[in-house]
Amino acid sequence: MNSKLVCGFFALSFCSLSAISLMVEPGFFDRSPVLLLLFPAIYVSAAKVMSLLTAYGDQGRPLSRYSRISVPLVFALIVGLTWESMVSGYQVPFVLLPPPSTIVSAFFNNTSILWADFRQTYLKAVLAGYVIGCTSGFVVAKLAVKSRYLQNGLVPMGNFMSAIPIVGIAPIMVMWFGFDWQSKAAVIVVMTFFPMFINTLTGLKSVDALQKDLFHTYAATKTQTFFKSQLPQALPFIFNALKINSTLALIGAIVAEFFGTPIVGMGFRISTEVGRMNMDMVWATILVAALAGSISYGALALLEKATLFWHASVRGMRAR
Predict the structure, then answer these.
(1) How far is Cα 311 from Cα 54, in angstroms, rounded to an integer?
(2) d(Cα 148, Cα 246) in Å, to the nearest integer?
(3) Looking at the predicted structure, is the pLDDT value of residue 24 above 80?
(4) Which residue has the higher pLDDT, 60 or 42?
(5) What is the pLDDT of residue 88?
(6) Residue 242 has what pLDDT?
(7) Quick one: three-class SS letters along the chain?
(8) N or C, fewer C-beta in 10 Å, the chain?
(9) CB 274 within 8 A of CB 243
(10) pLDDT at position 319, please?
(11) pTM of model > 0.90
(12) Mean of per-residue pLDDT scores for the chain
């Protein structure tokens, strides 16, 4: 199937659903339910588009990278336009679910407020807690790999701490460190320490015995053994912890702000605007959090590909 036909399918499905979403008035589907039959046809055509784009990307052509990007883009557009049409067409109460157009409008009309919240939550609390938690987890794992009692003591504690909900830790940290970003960073440190510790410890212990014997044969120092054998083998585990913690840190900061914060922050904004029934602002703040988390995770994934170009998993992903 050539690219022109793929573009034709995409244009047909996208324009059809866009026209419906623009023409829909409040209660439209209650008065004209027969138009709902158009949606299955649009979904079938959109599914065909995505399957063609997927097949096109798997052929290894020069535009295969753009084909991989376009599939989630088409899917997101279809979901967004369907959301817009259904909310308006069935007169869903604004408090329950605002339409995407209202959310986007609130996002652009309140950029200064959202930026202040983002700076307080992400640039201060999340980054500080993330760096401290991941660094300390890595250092302690480096010490514990040669200490049996540290492993036996900290690994069960990690399982215990992972079972404690955030709502149980956050109020305590607010009492200890105050209402500003420091208490949120402390919550993030607790949440990110053990995932990094356990993953790093597993990675450092996964070095093959033959490699250990080889480095011992060449009389390598402990530093050379660590940087040339242990650390490279542990990097996939470390990046796995970094990606997990990138989402945990943001969730922890937002939830911790529910229990006390200055009059700024994403968690504060969500709780305040829910009380005011400004659901468009609530969803706009959620959009900011989703974008921040996705960009953080994506940046770490790109860094992982660039760093682990030699690893079998990364070579397999590039081959596909």
Answers:
(1) 25
(2) 29
(3) no
(4) 42
(5) 75
(6) 93
(7) CCHHHHHHHHHHHHHHHHHHHHHCCCCHHHHCHHHHHHHHHHHHHHHHHHHHHHHHHHCCCCCHHHHHHHHHHHHHHHHHHHHHHHHHHCCCCCCCCCCHHHHHHHHHHCHHHHHHHHHHHHHHHHHHHHHHHHHHHHHHHHHHCCCHHHHHHHHHHHHHHHCCCHHHHHHHHHHHHCCCHHHHHHHHHHHHHHHHHHHHHHHHCCCCHHHHHHHHHCCCCHHHHHHHHHHHHHHHHHHHHHHHHHHHHHHHHHHHHHHCCCCCCHHHHHHHHHHCCCHHHHHHHHHHHHHHHHHHHHHHHHHHHHHCCCCHHHHHHHHC
(8) C
(9) no
(10) 47
(11) no
(12) 79
CA angle 132/136/138 to nearest 5° reads 125
User: Which of 85, 87, 89 has the alpha carbon at shortest distance from 97?
Assistant: 87
d(CA 162, CA 151): 16
The two three-digit tokens of residue 109, written as one number: 């009309």
What's the pLDDT at 158? 76
Residue owning tokens 């997927």? 54
Distance between CA 118 and CA 267 in Å, rounded? 10
pLDDT band at 1 (very low <50, low <70, confident <90, very high): very low
First to last CA, the chain: 20
Cβ-in-10-Å burial (0-12, 13-18, 19+) of 310 comes to exposed
What per-residue confidence (pLDDT) applies to 96? 84
Percent of the chain residues past pLDDT 90, beyond the cut: 23
CA distance 245 to 194: 10
* Six-digit token string for 76: 């997101």
The pLDDT tens digits of the residues spanning 203-250 come to 888 776 666 666 666 666 677 777 777 788 888 899 999 999 999 899
Query: d(Cα 126, Cα 191) in Å, to the nearest integer?
Result: 11
